[in-house]
Structure formats: C-alpha cells, structure tokens
C-alpha cells in the first residue's frame, strides 16, 4: 500500500542565508562584515508544510531542488518536521533556490536565485501523486512560472480526483497578477490572499469592492489582515474573526503561512468557518512570538504551550 497523506503541498523550495548586524548596507566595490549569519529553510510553501505537519496533519511536499548541499538542507529540514519528501524532484541542471537576506536596522535587502523552483511544470505532477492526498495546497505561484501557466489544469485534475483544494498565490514580484481568476477560482475551495494581494489582484482600492468582484468565482475567500485578524467570505456568510493580539511581536515572517496551516487543519477536520478562522488567527499569532516562520512550531506541545501562555487558550 502506498502511504497516504492529508495534504499534498505543491510549492517552491529554497534556503535563506540571513546576515544580521551589518554596519550599513553594502556599497559597490566595498566589503562589510556581518556579525551574525543563519542558514535556514526558506520559502512560504515549506513553512506551511512544516507547520501543518506540526499541527497534526500527514503532509507530503512536491517541489523541485538541485542536486546540491542546499537541496540536502531543504530535505533534512522538512524531514525534521516529519514532512514526506519522497515526491521532491532533484534537478541535475538547476541549483536549489536561495535568498540572501541582508538585515540592516529596520531595513533589509534581498537577492534571490530561484533556480530549480522555476522549472517544475505540470508534466512533473501525476495523478498517482494527487490521489494519495485528501487535499491539495498550492502556494507562491508567481515564483513558479512553470506551474503558474498550467494552474487551472492542475486544479481541474485535483478536483476531478476528488481532492479539496486551497491556494495562497502570494505576492507577484512582477506585479502582473496574471492568473485566470474566472476559470481558476471556482476550482479552489479555499482562496487565501492577504489584503494587499487581494487589492492588487483585483486592481481595486478597497476590500469590499475587491470582494464583490471575486464573489461570483470564489468558494471560500479568506482574507488575512495582519494584526486585524482575518475575514471569511462565502456565498451567504461574511465573518470577521478578531486577532489574538501579540503586543511583543518578534517578527511576522511566515505569519500568513502559519495562518494557512491552522485554517486548513480545522477545514480538514470539518469545522465551521468561524473555527477555521479562529485557529488560523491563533497559528498566525503564535508564529509572531518567535523568529522566522517555523520557530514557534517545534512541536504540537510547544505550540499549545505558547497559545496558553501568550493568548490564554
Ligand atoms: N501582530 C499580530 N498579532 C496577532 N496576529 C497576527 C499579527 N500579525 C499577523 N497575525 C496573524 O497572522 C495572520 C496572517 O498575517 P498577515 O500578515 O495578514 O499575512 P501575510 O504573512 O500573508 O502577509 C493574520 O491574519 C493574523 O491572524
Ligand atoms: Mg502571505
């Protein structure tokens, strides 16, 4: 028997090399020293997969890396969180993606080499992979042009095989927002943009106009609103869920991905929209109590302890 999963994540994979304690941002032709350095698993999709696994789901990842040491780090980090990596493709041609983050005071500069993540296509995804999962989650489509062009076909395949689906498109660095909203969104059971992405996608100035525009096409539209919590819009319902306010935010890196992991956990348990939003908000808030996207999700026990200590739940 093939192992079965609750969630199959299709997404980008990369490492983050984070340099802290810079005296300034670098200048052309000069060299500066960074006091601290961290090499860690990056990518929104990987944060979602890791945290969904910690929250109790069996998760498998389908993505593309290079045959190199950064790729090894990606695999090892996912496996540490019990995410199944058997479907990850190792390219002999491209390298594992990497982001170099230069943190200087409140400012940061980033350089990304996408590498292998850009070259995964629909041809790499087969029915026999999808049927092993109950739910398909796709994230960061603008970093994966090979997947983006066939996104509607991918979701059609998943729905045809009886999976439930979710999509967090994330920010489009080119700001083209070129997805086929009318044909794609009806195939997405849970669509999870943040406010800025929703406005940019619809080219609207206010959230209510953006919602009206998408309403004919979406099933569940879940809008992440940072420290204002989240809002869930369905045909007959429109619920705003208050945040678990954290007054000592360490950083909000990955808060949206953690929100997704909480929301989808409850969604797959068949819980009502209110509870999905509440648990998403809790996961997003817990995320902000530690550095990076996975720092607060070392185990379910640790997650529960933080939820109790910081938010009284
Ligand atoms: N400062 C905060 N305090 C409490 N919850 C937060 C805070 N920032 C984010 N969250 C939670 O995390 C969720 C996702 O964060 P948000 O910044 O909206 O997403 P993204 O990371 O995609 O931009 C929010 O909807 C909220 O539930
Ligand atoms: Mg996000």
Short description:
The protein contains 11 helices and 14 strands. It is α/β, with parallel strands linked by helices and 313 residues long. The protein has a single domain (5-26, 34-311), classed as Ribokinase (UDP-N-acetylmuramoyl-L-alanine:D-glutamate ligase).
Structure in words:
This protein is 33% helix and 23% strand. 42% of the residues are buried. With 313 residues, the protein is of the alpha/beta class. The chain has a single domain, classed as Ribokinase (UDP-N-acetylmuramoyl-L-alanine:D-glutamate ligase), CATH 3.40.1190. Helix 7 (195-202) packs across helix 8. Helix 2 links the parallel strand 5 (64-66) and strand 6 (89-91). It starts with a strand and ends with a helix. Bound molecules: adenosine-5'-diphosphate and magnesium ion. The site of adenosine-5'-diphosphate has 20 residues, from helix 9 and helix 10.
């Amino acid at each position: 028997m093939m192992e079965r999963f609750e969630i199959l994540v299709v997404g980008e994979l990369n490492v983050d090399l984070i340099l802290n304690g810079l005296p300034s941002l670098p200048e052309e032709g000069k060299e500066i020293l960074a006091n601290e350095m961290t090499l860690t698993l990056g990518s929104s999709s990987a944060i979602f997969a890791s945290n969904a696994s910690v929250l109790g789901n069996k998760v498998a990842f389908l993505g593309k890396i290079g045959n190199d040491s950064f790729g090894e780090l990606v695999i090892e980090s996912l496996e540490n969180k019990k995410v199944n990596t058997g479907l990850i493709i190792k390219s002999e041609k491209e390298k594992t993606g990497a982001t170099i983050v230069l943190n200087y005071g409140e400012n940061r500069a980033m350089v990304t080499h996408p590498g292998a993540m850009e070259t995964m296509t629909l041809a790499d995804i087969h029915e026999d992979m999808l049927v092993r999962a109950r739910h398909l989650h796709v994230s960061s489509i603008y970093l994966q042009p090979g997947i983006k062009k066939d996104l509607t076909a991918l979701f059609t395949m998943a729905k045809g095989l009886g999976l439930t689906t979710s999509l967090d498109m994330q920010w489009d660095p080119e700001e083209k927002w070129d997805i086929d909203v009318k044909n794609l969104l009806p195939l997405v059971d849970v669509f999870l943009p943040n406010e800025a992405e929703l406005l940019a996608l619809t080219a609207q100035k206010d959230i209510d106009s953006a919602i009206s525009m998408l309403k004919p096409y979406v099933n569940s539209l879940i809008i992440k609103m940072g420290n204002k919590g989240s809002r869930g819009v369905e045909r007959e319902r429109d619920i705003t869920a208050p945040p678990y306010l954290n007054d000592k935010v360490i950083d909000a890196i990955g808060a949206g991905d953690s929100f997704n992991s909480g929301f989808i956990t409850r969604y797959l348990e068949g819980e009502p929209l209110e509870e999905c939003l509440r648990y998403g908000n809790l996961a997003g808030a817990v995320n902000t109590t530690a550095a990076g996207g996975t720092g607060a999700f070392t185990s379910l026990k640790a997650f529960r302890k933080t939820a109790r200590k910081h938010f009284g739940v």
